[in-house]
Amino acid sequence: MIQSLLVANRGEIACRIIRTARSMGIRTVAVYSDADAGALHVRQADEAVHIGPSPARESYLVGEKIIAAARSTGAQAIHPGYGFLSENAAFAQSVIDAGLIWVGPDPASITAMGLKDAAKALMQAAGVPVTPGYMGDDQRVERLSAEADAIGYPVLIKAVAGGGGKGMRKVDSAADFAEALASCQREATSSFGNAHVLLEKWVTNPRHIEVQIFGDSHGNVVHLFERDCSLQRRHQKVIEEAPAPGMDEATREAICAAAVRAAKAVDYTGAGTIEFIADGSEGLRADRIWFMEMNTRLQVEHPVTEEITGVDLVEWQLRVASGEPLPKKQGELSINGWAMEARLYAENPATGFLPSTGPLHHLSLPKTGRIETGVEESDVISAFYDPMIAKIVSCGNDRAEALAALRAACGAVECEPVKTNAWFLRRLLAERAFEAGDVTTAFIGDHIETLCAPPMASDGLLQYAAVDLAFSAVHMPDGPGSPKHDLGRACFGFRLNAAANRTVRLCVDGVATDIVVKDRAPGHGRTWTGVSDGRNTIYFDEGASFVIAAHRTEGGASAAASDGAILSPMPGRIIAVAVAAGERVARGQKLLTLEAMKMEHSLIAPFEGIVAELNASEGGQVSEGALLARIEKADA
User: Fold this and answer.
1) DSSP codes joined into one string, 23-48
2) Which listed residue, 29, 258, 410, 492, has the most CB atoms within 10 A of its CB?
């Protein structure tokens, strides 16, 4: 058995590998770039080696530095995780040539499956069904155009060396073919250094079905059933689940047997995935499912397979790399329950999924289910790497149970100031078509405007925020990263001496909004969580965040709300208190004076009444939005 392991990766997959290695008693070595000097995977490993500047091409993609780190630390083996160098046959060979154990398939297998056209030809010879198309060497525009005409539109142009959705174009008509081909070839050359393409028939109602396979050095190959990864955005997976909805046993047996034949055709060892495209227009049928490509590595979505089979795939990788046979035979593997995974990214769906980077001043991930992450609160989301924050995995006895759990988990995500796609994921999981299992790879694109519409604060949250900000003395800590403020202690719908049906003006995400606080409002009895950014309160609801503050008059001359709540317009120090609790005051009478930003601000009574509440004392420091006093209208 391997005794020491270098993990040639970062983030959540590095943490995932380290966790299993540690449970097996294996010493772990992490590598890190400048940007990752304080990263979670570095903190979790037994030892860590700096390998260069922040850009991956100068650190994580430099094989010589990885091997040198293994040698200098006495590591016996290298696990590449996924991405970076995981499917680089030359790197795999260099690891082996250095006398180290490569935790992955033989370099020849990586090479055989690395180019899509060669892989498809190999699969055809092995009796694996492939999508109709053209895979020839003649790459002239005239020949490719003629082949597209023969296949019939729409067709898909794919870079043979492509991956991750790059170098792919759907073409709907002959008139668009030449332009789409040129664009695809440019992207393929830029991304992979190879402009060669193949053509495939565009599959209507496409579903992405993949099969997890595993081989050992003793000639054994098993499958661990299928996953459905149809919910994608621009060819990037968003939600994955196992097993695939609508998959009957006969079709499962056929597709999994084809996957095993594919693995045996390249003498495969280790973990791998055979990806298929299915025409779901008539349900899942064995004669309408075709080989697409093979991933010669562990997949991002491997946890869903682990959850339904009870297998630790990383442990299997380490045992097989150590020369052991597979821990289980095919007959010992079975499906138990259902699992789903959502990819939580630091991005804002409302702004075209622009990445959101920076420090995680506040991060609270779901407390239930399985969480795979490479960051903790106070860590930083870097602009140099994939912006994944975590993978959220749920399980259930059936699909409905797993779906409900994942939807709740995505709604429980709290992150600030970095924006996430949690609310988008929750909204996606609530779609009726997805609940019914009736989706294709085009589903997100077809519903993108609805799914990405900016989230709105619910009436219940606004009611709660109005009560919490206007009627209670909420002294929030100053500055980002300050201790969290649990607003749950102020149960909505209950305030001592607070009258019902008052109007409170709030500033919600920069927009002034009048809220009528009702005695019995939607959400009565529910609480929300909020944190301070030093100026405002950020509330979290169903995976989204909302910046809410008690509205104040510009200039600070008056911060009195129309219901008599006197709020601090900004952080400052009370330098004078002109009234006492229980005192009768006239409209416009000065109540107290606040010093802030080297200026004095007088806060006055909004109407004639009684000082029912006074929470200010001379010399006291107050936060923005804090309730300083409350005036109740005097009896006529």
Assistant:
1) HTT-EEEEEEEGGGTT-HHHHHSSEE
2) 410
Of 169, 297, 343, 407, the catalytic one is 297
Kindly report, residue by residue over 218-269, the tens digit of the pLDDT: 999 999 999 999 999 988 999 999 999 999 999 999 999 999 999 999 999 9
Separation between Cα atoms, residue 410 and residue 486, nearest integer Å: 20
Class of domain 4-103: alpha beta
Environment class of 310 (CB within 10 Å of its CB; exposed 0-12, middle 13-18, buried 19+): exposed
Q: Rounded to whole angstroms, how far apart are CA atoms 184 and 190?
A: 10
pTM of the model: 0.80
Residues in contact with 604: Cβ distance below 8 Å, sequence separation at least 6, in sequence order: 557, 558, 560, 588, 589, 590, 591
* Tens of pLDDT, residues 41-85: 999 999 999 999 999 999 999 999 999 999 999 999 999 999 999
Distance, in Å, from the CA atom of 326 to the CA atom of 63, rounded to the nearest integer, reads 29
297 is catalytic: yes
Question: Which residues, 6 or more positions from 480, have their beta carbon under 8 angstroms from its beta carbon?
Answer: 359, 361, 417, 533, 534
Bin 11: left if φ > 0, else alpha if -120 < ψ < 50, else beta: left
The CATH fold assigned to 565-633 is: OB fold (Dihydrolipoamide Acetyltransferase, E2P) (2.40.50)
Q: What is the helix (H) or strand (E) element at residue 102, kind and residue range?
A: strand 101-102
Its CATH class, for the domain covering 343-455, is: alpha beta
